[in-house]
Hints:
Number of domains: 1
Oligomer: single chain
Structural class: alpha/beta
CATH architecture: Alpha-Beta Barrel
Strand content: 5-15%
Amino acid sequence: MATQVLLTIDTELTWRHFAAGADWRENFDLSCQPCGVGISYQLEMLRRHGLKACFFVDPMPALVYGLEPIQRMVAPILEAGQEVQLHLHSFWHDLAGGRQETARFELTAFNPWEQHALIETALALLVDAGAPTPIAFRSGSYAADVTTLSALAELDLRYDSSHSGAEHPWPSALPFDPALIDPIESHGVVEVPISQISCPDGGLRPLQLCALSASEMQAALRHADRGNHQVTTIVSHSFELAARDGKRINRLVRGRFDGLCAFLDAHRATMPTTTFAALPRTLGAPLAVPLPPDRARIAWRMAQQAWGRIRYEQPTIAAGIAAAPPLIALAGMAAYAD
Length: 338
């Protein structure tokens, strides 16, 4: 049985650029099209490899800026034949109400009536921006609880994808085992968890581009294939292939994305990419377990991450270590070697 792969990309304007004083156009450039490796680049790589993806678009900035930035997110995704579903960062609601200093960043900070109203507002804004009526939802920061699921069911959203075991029990506050990675029906919706791998200390790490090395991602996908997992859900972001400031390409993470696309292209027979609209209506029992830890893969990833932080997030430090130690220099090549 083929393992369906949901390659999901959270697409949004970000708080950090807003807080730094950026207007929406600058925020859009830094969050959605940074350094030429944002939405347009991701769509081109998907096209080149014949892959499907779901872009979870956050329409809530429209409460502050109007619909134009959301339309500029939605239009190219739909033109490329990819899927748009609903994302929601609740702090935009408070910014629109003049509550910058006390903005609530987690949807779970709102009472049941408020959660319902926020999701209903976001749904209407996304449709007004040109998207088809969504059937799937992911909360910003994975902040969701049973109240969220009930509101989604009331609004006819069939799927939620906010359960992340690595973020459980907060801000991902859904009442599931952190290690749950198979879809499961609950409170009137189907929960499609973020896939995870196991850590030596018993914790979990999500299948996210900035969280795993290419070798860990490929091992997790092969593990899902061998175990006949129903769905493997991978997370990325519109800004993730650039440095945090949005002003430099993060070649380490871009290399992971390019490598992932090539890997999924080469393994499409057993790991086909899919969309929420194409998921089967009938679910099997949730039996999948995360990939067990491997200390060699973990050590390699930690070396990569250390090099990446120095090279792309701390440029002044990078300038002072022109003669990098061999291990760090080798880790810096990982984007091309994996």
